[in-house]
Design goal:
The complex is a heterodimer. Chain A is built from 4 helices and no strands. Chain A is mostly helical. Chain A has one domain: ACP-like (Non-ribosomal Peptide Synthetase Peptidyl Carrier Protein, Chain A, Orthogonal Bundle), CATH 1.10.1200.10. In chain A, helix 1 crosses helix 2. The radius of gyration of chain A is 11 Å and the shape is globular. The mean pLDDT of chain A is 89. Chain B contains 23 helices and 17 strands. An 8-stranded mixed sheet of chain B has the order 15-16-14-13-12-11-10-17, with helices on both faces. Chain B has a 5-stranded parallel sheet with strand order 2-1-3-4-5, sandwiched between helices. In chain B, helix 1 crosses helix 2 and helix 2 crosses helix 11. The longest helix of chain B is centred in the first third of the chain and has 25 residues. The chains are: A mainly alpha, B alpha/beta. Chains A and B meet through helix 1, helix 2 and helix 3 of A and helix 1 and helix 10 of B.
Chain lengths: 78, 593
Amino acid sequence: MEKEIYERLNKVFRDVFDDETIEVNSETTSKDIEDWDSLEHINLVVAVEQEFGIKFNMNEVTTMKNVGEMVSIIMSRI
Amino acid sequence: MQELEYPFDVEYLIKNKKKIKRELLEKGNFLEKNIAILGGSTTSEIKNMLEIFLLNYGIKPTFYESEYNKFYEDAMFGNEELDNFHPDIIYIHTTNRNIIEYPSMLDDENTVNEMLNSEYEKFRKMWNKLFEKFNATIIQNNFEYPFFRLLGNKDASDIHGRINFITRLNQKFYDYANTTKNFFINDINYISSCYGLDKWADQLYWNMYKYAMEVSAIPYLSFNIANIIKSIYGKNKKALVLDLDNTLWGGIVGDDGVENLAIGPEVPSGQVYAEFQNYLKEQRNLGVLLNVNSKNEYENAIAGLNHPAGVLKPDDFIIIKANWEPKNINIKAIAEELNLGADSFVFVDDNPAERQICKSYVDGIATPNIDTPENYIRILDHNGYFEITNFSTEDLKKNALYKDNAKRSQMMATFDNYEDYLLSLKMKAEISSFKPIYLERIAQLSNKSNQFNLTTKRYSLADIEAVNNDDNYIKLYGKLEDIFGDNGVITVVIGNIKNNDELHIDLWIMSCRVLKRNMEYAMLDSLVKKAKERNIKTIYGYYYPTQKNKMVSDFYKLQGFEEISCDDKGNKVYKLDISNGYKNKNNVIEVKE
């Protein structure tokens, strides 16, 4: 299931940043992706929420450090 | 681009806006405009979405975006960048977050009024300053309601309530708009209520990102702004092209007869169509040109429009095309007769396949996905095709003017690539001998079909069962599906084997839903195949004219049959010799047996 989540997440990243070369892993952070600034971050969060049919709460959005933490929140919800 | 028409797939738009922008930019030939966004909250995504909606309207924006919540400073004190930007449009994105002071319960009426005035004056001075400085059009948000009500229901009526305060402030904005040229209100109060205020006001987005609304609501906001802008630059649609059966009334006039159409207040299904006709009549009164594009005999279409409970009458339309031509050809003909670009049209049809053909072959036409009848008004309305920014009395006369013009030119566009359209539908048919699960549908179809019906022979369920059990019959049903979905069982042929090598076609019917899709060719191919398996040499076809089946009067001739007799009532007998081979006619439908 974790593998599938990464695959779906990767697709969302590629769509949002319009970059087919993106490969995310648990260590990926905003530093690794050029366009990932605070304004794109919200679009990313919304796109991820819609992809998995979940909603992050404020605490989660502010404390998420990398993609791995995002995935563990997703896994706890679906 | 269909994705940029209401209703939106917000998820798709948010994820793919960059790709969409790239695709739209490839089209070229844009009207270029400078748009300054002066925001009282974060506007980044509002700008991104506005950009793709405008590109879709053929407008290429260059943006100036104020620093976060610097709308007032930018407007009043200016800055070099904005001063040199020469905006054509200034959009002021303020929300109830930007109201500085609200009344408290201790304030007396005078204090509240002063508060209201000072809030309004702040805006009025800002607008006037912008008009002094720039030769631009201003688009100003009104205020959305707050998501909480300190006074409960009294918040609306009491001068201390925020809802009351915002309502009064909005009214002052409207008074300014009504007396000022080049000033338009972007009605976020309405947009937020359509969207759902609680969802719109999701506080996470304010607290986290200083967005004054949920991010998923932004496409609706930006679309609304884009509609005002395209209207200002004359890019509104001008005309509606309307289907009849199941669009303006419930039922099929050619099959069901005028007296059985659902229209009017007696039944819910008729009520919904009457309200839709009412809405269209109001559009007409505002100068939108109404036209008809329907697969029908002309007399039937007129009879339907003269239904006593109908709101729209034949006279309300400029051009009525009721024939059996492909609808895209009719639309091009209407465009030529009215002397309008095809991109000025909105085509309204309940049938997604008809919408698709028009979308594919008529460049720039809007073909809203109007869904089911109870949604027609909302979807048409919320698309903002006819957004009014400036209204003249000329608009009221427009229908009459065009009507005269239409009489002058009567030209017909031609279209020679119909097969490509059919192929694009990726049709798949299932044609086979009757199966028990379909017998009821087959009987029903034999009783409902009036137009595509060669003999108008009616069968009860028992009759159909008898045919099914009799080995002297070849009996085929056909199902058709395409990229839009499954049409179910839509055609039936029953042939009676006589004298060992003759097949006499007792019944050949097809639903009007699938006319001009070459399904009849596929049926004949399968029929011939089955006939050969039974050593049939000659197939006989019969055409018995009725008031409703004129459209198939030449059907057998078109299928390559030879006419062998015709009596004084017009009853005809045809034959087709298959003993010397037969060449399949269908090449657009994939057939499964």
